[in-house]
Amino acid sequence: MIRAKPSDDTRRAGSQKPAPGPAPEPAGPSWLEPVLLAVTASSLIAGGVLRLLDHSDAADLCWALGTAFAVVPATGWVVAALRRGHAGVDLVAVLALGGTLAVGEYLAGALIGLMLATGRTLEAAAQRRASHDLRALLAHTPRTARRRTGTEVRPVPVSEVAVGDLLVVGAGEVVPVDGQVTGPAAVLDESVLTGESAPVERKPGQTVRSGAVNAGGAFDLRATATEQDSTYAGIVRLARQAGAEAAPVVRLADRYAAWFLPLSVAVAGLAWLLSGSAVRAVAVLVVATPCPLLLAAPVAIVSGLSRTSRLGVVVRDGGALERLGRARTLLLDKTGTLTGGRPRVVDVTAAPGWKPAEVLRLAATVDQYSPHVLAHAIVDAARERGLEPSMATDVSEEAGRGAYGVVGGRRTAVGRLEPAAVVPEWARAAENRAVLDGAAVAWLTVESVPVGAVMLRDPLRHDAPRALRRLRTAGIERIVMLTGDRPEPAREIAAVLGLDGVRAELTPADKVAAVRAERGRAVTVMVGDGVNDAPALAAADVGVAMGAHGSTASSEAADIVLTTDRVDRLADATSIAVRSRRIAVQSALGGMLLSLVAMGAAAVGLLPPAVGALLQEGIDVAVILNALRALRVDQGARPALEPAAKALIHRFAAEHEDLQDVLQAVRDAAARLSDPGGDGQALESVREVNRLLTERLLPHESAEEHQLYPALEPVLGGPEATATMSRAHAEIERLAGRVAAHVSLADAQGALGPEQLEDLRACLYGLHTVLRLHFTQEEENFFSLAP
């Protein structure tokens, strides 16, 4: 038997652990900004203490020394900027510092020096984009290969492998170079390359790419490329190149200084020219001190960083947050990003004479001994439905094919059907359903006879639809899925989420090309979780890694890491980034506008330097206080739930899991009504459905109506927010009542009448559809509110 290949999921096979290679060293922090900050702060504090002790001359000396100390590095920064062809905000600061020294306004100079040092320190942290550490990628790279020469197998460095060499790849080892399978078929985990962890079978003659992990037995590989020309080495190079090509962050302050700087100098020069007084020119420069630029933007951005960190969002630097606030395009991987990254049982089909619950229990009995990710999903689903696996003996498993065991004296297997196996009609219908649903199938056979099918799929995250809506509200205009998965499940998820585009079956190189193309049109965010996503994350303006269960490589290549396994945290971070950037711009522009008014007053002689310095400090305090608003919680971003409401959400979310067998029973009963000659079984199935509806489903719906919805109404804005869900409850109750009426009629007649079949079948299928839609809407709109 062969375990069916799922569309989105299976295990990540263990790989060999080669010796870690060298990784690029991240750029170290500059020592100059912290030293400047320490000196200017110390001089300002010391001067203040001396002034309080009535030692004015000593205080002036301290402030003058602090000002002079700030002039030197500031001049160096200006010269370096001029050599690069542009003059930044620091030039205004240098002119203002020199002016305060010239006219003896040492306190103003010390304050300007402190503002400059603080702004530079904050901006240094915001500008330094984290180096794209490739240690995880390199750690996965095999250092040796086992080369077969005749009957001898010897380990050799991968760099010595030549095209045409015959290699042996053992179980759990990483494929060292690209090649073709020779001898027995290979079962591979290609998740590193595609993001899809489904083991794939490569038959003799088929191509295998380096970086894949051998998830089956040992196989022979004929090398078709050297190490440097192989796939995995290309992924590492892509990540390095993409990181090197990342555009440096343009300082927000410098963008505004482009016009504020020449204007300030022009006003000062004009005041000097018209009045003949250098003091007026200095007064203009003092009030033109760009503290609103030096501090307002960094304070707002750093405040935003503080807010995001409280939500489990790690933003590497202020530049990343500022770029996120300007982003207009969002690219997302599918598996592990829009989906949970773990398969779940979505349907169980039983052969005539078998019940779905018994199929699931038997499958779990055999699979409980398997490390396969699909096996874990089957066992978890059985236990969630109260179906405890029994004991199995003589259990074995063949990688990529299935698990075998003896249960109750009968040989039972879970996995793929043998190619020569006779597929009954019910099984063909199950196969068709799996294709339509984009699901994987694990077949249950007893004594080689198929008796059931368990369908598994990586489901959409409950928080994904709400997160994407909020991202659009925050300013994202274009959302596209980039995935290595097949087009069918990718298009289905894209349709459900209303994405603007979907590209499937992409290699890591394809993803990087797509990111670069989107970057040419707008500031672009890329979200992913696998090693194969690392190059694309590094190539984007903002790379976001799902770090809770994602790979280390993706986290290290990203600018933002979501440490909680919730994609809606990206929406939170984007809202914070947009708000922080808006406040930064408001603060900077507001401060500059006030400074312009003060410059005009100083130019006509209404503000002497000393008074101008005090006024400028008042402006600085005002804009900094405004920038600190970014620390406050935006009440419109996420509803605040009471603990009791959160507990109810968790309770009813768990009940949804428990009620999956009820939904399955409704669908199976409807299907049995179409089985000619199965009237007795059909009626029994409908009776069972009626019991499940009465004893389990309807009480659940009633409790939601009278407990959950009232608790959510204050948060969601009133009863109108839950009105459509209440209407669905009414429809569910109506259809359940109709099923009960049909059961009563059948009991009175002793059998289901022919005239009942069409209406009863419509009721059951309709009920199943309404329940699935209703559950999905509740999970998306209500359950996603609670972590």
From TrEMBL:
PROSITE patterns: ATPASE_E1_E2 (PS00154)
Record CDD domains: Hr-like
Chain ranges passing through the membrane: 35-53, 60-80, 92-119, 256-275, 281-302, 588-607
InterPro entries in the cross-refs: ATPase_P-typ_cyto_dom_N, ATPase_P-typ_P_site, ATPase_P-typ_TM_dom_sf, ATPase_P-typ_transduc_dom_A_sf, ATPase_P-type_domA, Cation_Transport_ATPase_IB, HAD-like_sf, HAD_sf
Skewed-composition ranges (Basic and acidic residues): 1-12
Compartments in which it is found: Cell membrane
UniProt entry keywords in alphabetical sequence: ATP-binding, Cell membrane, Membrane, Metal-binding, Nucleotide-binding, Transmembrane, Transmembrane helix
Chief place of localization: membrane
PANTHER family found in the cross-reference section: CADMIUM/ZINC-TRANSPORTING ATPASE HMA2-RELATED, CADMIUM_ZINC-TRANSPORTING ATPASE HMA4-RELATED
Family: Belongs to the cation transport ATPase (P-type) (TC 3.A.3) family. Type IB subfamily.
Protein name as annotated: Heavy metal translocating P-type ATPase
Source organism: Streptomyces erythrogriseus
Organism lineage: Bacteria, Bacillati, Actinomycetota, Actinomycetes, Kitasatosporales
